[in-house]
Amino acid sequence: MSPRKENQKHMDQVNQPSLPEPRYSFLSRERGAIREMKEAKPLDRQHQQVLSMLSGLQQNFSSLLQVVTNRLSYDKTKEAAFDKLYKEMEELKQDQELNQLRPLYIDLILHFDRMESIYRHGSVSPELTEILKTLSGELIEILYRRGVEPLYTQSDYFDPKTQQAVKVEPTSNPAEDNKIVGIVRHGFKYKEVILRPIEVVVKKYQP
Question: What are the transmembrane regions (predicted)?
């Protein structure tokens, strides 16, 4: 073949238009895309189901938490109400007991005063003095077991909460104003209730 004919053949091959892609190749890609979409849909549904389940669990947990909170608040309120009621009942019980037994306690305290006055200031034999001291000590023990206790001075100066001034002595020293100089009778209390204040002698400043 001559060179001219070979060149012409080469030019014809170069200028030959490309054939369209076979149809079966396009259909294959389309089927693959459809298959991927079908495979993705179940995953999306599962994801939605999981989210829905988690949302339901969160709502149930919130409801349960609210129930527990309300229950704890109710229990605390109920406990406080019972404590208050119990305290009021105890106070009422003590008040009733004191009202019933107060006359007896006062009589026993007066007997203690008489015995103490006799062996401190009376002219009695030493044997009788010891007997009276023993009896007065036993009487204090009986009162103590009933909740009645002697009052004691906490300071050298007058305290109107637990003391009663039955005698006043004048003083020219301002530092001695309201100073206790003597105890006339002991005071007693029933738990926190004053049955009888301590009767004392105090100094009063007079310039």
Answer: none
- Whether 104 is in a domain gets the answer yes
Six-digit token string for 98: 């004191």
Specify the DSSP element, H or E, that contains 171: strand 163-171
Nearest to 101 by CA among 186, 190, 198, 185: 190
- DSSP string for 5-66: HHHHHHHHHHSSPPPPPPHHHHHHHHHHHHHHHHHHHHHHHHHHHHHHHHHHHHHHHHHHHH
CA-to-CA separations, 195 to 102, 104, 118, in angstroms, rounded: 8, 11, 23
Parent domain of 100: 76-147
Q: For the whole prediction, is pTM greater than 0.85?
A: no
The total domain count for the chain is 2
Map tokens 């006062």 to a residue.
106
